[in-house]
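Two entries, shown back to back:
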Amino acid sequence: MSRIDPAGRARRPSRASGGFPRLRACGGVRHLLFVLGDQLNARAAPLRRLDATGDAVLMLEVAGESRHVPSHKQRTALFLSAMRHFALELVRRGLRVHYVPLDDPSNTQSLDSELRRAVDELGPEQLHLVHPGEWRVMRLVEHWRRDLTIPIILHDDDHFLLQPAEFADWAAGRRRLVLEHFYRMMRRRHGILIRDDGEPEGGRWNYDADNRRPYRDGPPPASPIRFEPDAVTRDIIHLVSERLPDLPGRLDQFSWPVTRRAALRALRDFVTHRLPTFGPYQDAMVAGQPFLFHSLLSPALNLKLLDPREVIDAALVAWRHGRAPLQSVEGFIRQVLGWREFIRGVYWHAGPEYAAMNGLQQHGRLPEFYWTGRTDARCLKLCLEQVLDHGYGHHIQRLMVTGNFALIAGVHPRHISDWYLGMYVDAVDWVTLPNTLGMVMHADGGLVGTKPYAAGGRYIDKMSDYCRGCLFDPTQRTGPRACPFTTFYWDFLERNQRRLARNPRMSVVLQSLRRMREAEIDAIRAAARATRARMGIGPIEGGS
């Protein structure tokens, strides 16, 4: 692999570089575009407008971005490898790139200090950024605007189909932000799966009722395409192992796409081999099948290697040519056009205070087994080991196993939100925080979810084969074989029945709770306290 000097000439790599070109921009920079690690969009408008002779791109690798929450080794490696490949591609296009690698001896490992150092070194006339993906970085931008002596231009992120200001216009005056209303608006706005008469294709807006089948005797899933690490990625894997050995998770199964070309191959692979059967089984969970029929495209989408428009178009083409049924295509498009855009809108609309919300007043600790996978509950063990192995879990594993457990056990919402942000390869704060704090933990008072997505062991037994051979019985609330999910579920309902009484979607299950004898409720309370103590969750009321 070549090393690139500021003029773009190839020369031999040095051992100190770890095989990666340490790219440096020349002086005399007019416009400096700072590209963050989740903004690898080669077609972004600010990047297209750069002048190769007078402008430059700035990219920074800093260890602090993997440590403000403990980041999975594969998540860290994915971001760094994708960044390096992106920088190399920009150089091949003739752009000047100022790149500070993680192992640069002068690297302070802080995003704030490295940005300031780069501005001092390069002396640009203007600093440009695309709208960042989290409030933490937005606050840094405000500090830079106050402290730096050059103009800082913030650009809309044209990767998304709706900008935060447009979402705010849609949300204005609404008592509740309901996904279904937003999704229908987006379908009409972009003309996706809409007939000439303005009605939805197939006569239905969604096929959720048909897309909740457990996987019993379904078709065998096609394994997703694997991407063997190239030289750049192997260097990164070695670097993460050497420089960040304390990070959680495993690296030996890393196979994520780290370039746009690879991401497009992953898109074609999903549409050809798994989209046709994605719909009916998208909520199913199967031991030994971590991916089933899911797309695995969210990491590439959230890094901006893929554009949501081309992902949606690929699914639509498959439907129009009879290669995928409407049921599956609509279910997939709902996730990309509907939920993904909705969640981003909620994140920016709710403001930075959103992260501190704790509507159910839960203060328990996150159990240690979330970091190790060592637990007797088979469903948790399987889902957590999968996260440690791959940095991945599909939406029902996240919502109804790892997330549901934290909800009903009484874990503090910020503890589990930070775990999600660090442990999944597709995690960026704009998508992780509302999904976890809002949808999973119902800590935002129902802004995202219309009800708590709480469930006992019977739901997991229905939607998976996880309960087979488990030490616990999903039908038992108390006793030596009581399933922790079932115990915690009824304890959660009892603890929160006054809060939930006003929610019409909870009325039926609360009636079941009221029919229980007081002695049975006391036994559930005692079992829940003992289980929380055994798992290290501790008291859930008060404290932090």
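entry 2 starts here
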Amino acid sequence: MCGIVGLLSYGDVGRVDRTVLDRMRDAMAHRGPDGGDGWVSEDRRIGLGHRRLSIVDLNVAATQPMRNEDGAVVITFNGEIYNHAKLRPELVACGHKFRTDHSDTEVLVHGYEEWGLDGLLERIEGDYAFGIWDERKGLLSLARDRIGVKPLYFARIKGCFAFASEMKALVEHPDFVREIDPSAMYHYLSFLTTPAPLTMMRGIYKLPAGCSMTIDRFGKATISRYWDAVPGCGIERSETANLSDAALEEFYVNGIRDRLRASVEKRMMSDVPMGVFLSGGVDSSTNVALMSEFSSRPVETFTIGFSDYKHLNEYEQANQIARQFGTNHHEIGISKKDMINYLPQMLHSQDEPIADWVCIPLYFVSKLAHDNGMKVVQVGEGSDEQFCGYSGYMTYLKMYHKYWAPFRKYLPQPAQRLAAGTANLLSGMHPKLPVYADVIDRAARSREHFWSGAMVFPDLMKSQLVDAAAIAAANDDHADAAGLLDPEYLKLDSFNIVRSFMDPLDAKFSNLDPLTRMIHSELRLRLPELLLMRVDKIGMSESLEARVPFLDHKLVEFSMDIPEEWKTKGGEPKYLLKKAVEGLIPDNIIYRKKMGFGAPMSDWMRSDFGRAVRASVFSSGLMRRGFLKPAYIEKLFDWHFTGRTDTSLYLWAIFNLTAWYDLWIDRKAVDTSQLSDAVA
């Protein structure tokens, strides 16, 4: 994994300044500590930069930006192409001459020449973000991988189109004006993150997963989706026709196991040491088991726990797996003090607020791996989303089948609206009630019952938190993203985000089961923009590339064709995946209750740390903008401090937002003095 950046000056405005390009590139030095280089065209209309983390083909010949034989095609590339070795002979047979020994970047260069952008994207398998300049066509092409493992941001800055792996590179441009995007902030308060293509920084956008984009020499941009997580791509109907239940289960189990094994094997591609994050759960333990099959030396495993909250640790299970597979095992425990000292770096590394406190342990386990010589790790993200591994998913499904569907089917519309209105009135009686009232309101208004597995403020709570008039007055028309941004995203209704990808799904596929719809939503929003974004930003802050075997697109396509009834057979979460890994890892690991990867934030927030967070929030420059209502925020703190209910998720989301504003908009260094004083 690396860091990429590019500038295209279009029309008659300006030229690329190499000094500016280099400064933007080096704002991401952590993404590529092994070197940095750049290229600017002779007419200075286009410039590309690259920070290198050497993983495949360590030779200097593989340095980027990389050009083809005559220099007409130039690329800057972040990521890995796992099938590059299979594609290279085909390109050689077509007459392309390679200068490197086994660089996957050079396969992209010649693959683009031979097949064009669409043909290239159809053939490659991997995790990637790249920019390719075609001098003959005067065309800049960008692409983000199918699942969204790698990020890619872009902006228009005074007649210049700019792109980069991280937002912090774009704000380094001297003509960029920093300002919060109120619409993005509104949706962040719903989803813990901003939905693509919006970002928290006005004027900066992120390319959605599975999308490509072209920009001509005049600045005209076109965006298209080349892949989506939908049914009908993984299993031919003839393969399952007339199978008995026993035979069908065997087909699903074998299909999952075979694709997962192939995915792990592909992701062993590396010329440098690699390891795996081991929690002791099903997903990470499976990664260890399969990596051990393809490794000639002991797998390096890394586990994190909490020194102050030992009941949250999974050391025992992790050590069981480490012993069984003979790994070189490493552990670390962190405290509240460690968390507080890390916060300034976290806010800088995230780019925009990612209000998931998993970022904290994720950083320390990433640092542990880096300090032990790792450049690559395999992680378990994506398994729970595909195979229904979260208890919250099971709750949503039970609610849908027992209450939602009957409510919608048997209760007349006037009665539905009356029920919703009554629930809204009663919601103020207890801090937990708005969540349930919001679900009833969705049903009465024919809205999706499931929006995301990471909802923060439901609509009823958000109406008490934000001043909608102040946000609407500050909204921008986003003219610089004309044609690329759905205008509905700018309205203060987060259901528009969900509707933007669920309506096309419904138009193409009728009668999908609720779980398949939920998974599609997760693969469009929560996975790429929250879970994978946190893995990328936090891991790369320690120059560590994370690979995600459970999100190989062939496995995703296969799993999207498996119905809900099989993924949750007998009420068992992850039923088929658990069957698929029986015999690979111990049954006591497979069938124990899921703990999850988290942090004791609720307890931390009830300590002096929480009061320091309160002081930080209310002193933030964002509070003076009038977007948020102080009285309601005060109520959330009071509820948590008095133990009336746990509001730590809401408070953490608000703290991340206000602290981000202070750092990135007001450019004030994060003051940890109050927070540090809160260490018990």
